[in-house]
Amino acid sequence: MEPFKTLDAVAAPIDRANIDTDAIIPKQFLKTIKRTGLGVSLFYDWRYLADGKTPNPEFVLNRERYRNTRILVARQNFGSGSSREHAPWALLDFGIRSILAPSFADIFYNNCFKNGILPVRLSEEQIDRLFREIPEQSGYRIAVDLPSQTVTLPDQTRWTFDIDPFRKKCLLEGLDDIALTLSHKDRIAEYEGRRKAEAPWLFTHTGA
């Protein structure tokens, strides 16, 4: 997993509440178990017209000013619905590394950290300000600093945000669940060695 430390990028506003995981990545794209290749289908029903191929010019991420965005700004309860991990996979594959919203669905929030995306909770008032300012200024950039837990706007307004210390450490060091397990490999090997000595019959191969 790629570590997350600081991000200075164009922000795109998706002015909707309760954006669920089926909107983020529809069910027909859940057949794959690969984490790559899903970005093209991100927000599929909103990004494309009825033919499923032609970009919808009205959708925010299809507008030229937002095509290189790496930060999304959304309303409350982002990531609600089913617990599909394909949702953060699709966001990450598209290039999104941080999402700013007043609240997130719990499972989606947890899945973001496991995949290198930083979800930042801001107040309703702060999010309202972003929705006012971003459309008014082309190339509106936001700086997200994980070590200092701050979000900085173009006029240097700085907001702080809260994050669980363990999740922060994992993002800073790029540790997903597998990497966390492997970080204890010496203790795991020590335990296995002790168990083999204590109960060797548990490790005897009995297959034909």
Structural class computed from helices and strand pairing: alpha/beta
Q: Biggest sheet: strands side by side, in what order?
A: 4-3-2-1-5-6-7
User: Major β-sheet, in short?
Assistant: 7 strands, mixed
CATH superfamily: Aconitase, domain 4
The helicity comes to 25-40%
Low-confidence stretches: none
Tell me the total number of β-strands.
Answer: 7
Count of the domains: 1
Number of helices: 8
Task: Examine the coordinates and then state which fold CATH places here, giving the name of the CATH topology.
Answer: Aconitase, domain 4
Describe this structure in a few short sentences.
With 208 residues, the protein is of the alpha/beta class. It has helices at 21-24, 44-47, 86-94, 106-114, 124-133, 165-173, 177-182, 185-198; strands at 6-14, 71-74, 98-101, 118-121, 141-145, 150-152, 158-160.
Please tell me about this protein's structure.
By secondary structure, the protein is of the alpha/beta class. The chain has one domain (6-203): Aconitase, domain 4 (Alpha-Beta Barrel), CATH 3.20.19.10. It is 31% helix and 15% strand. The chain has a seven-stranded mixed beta sheet.
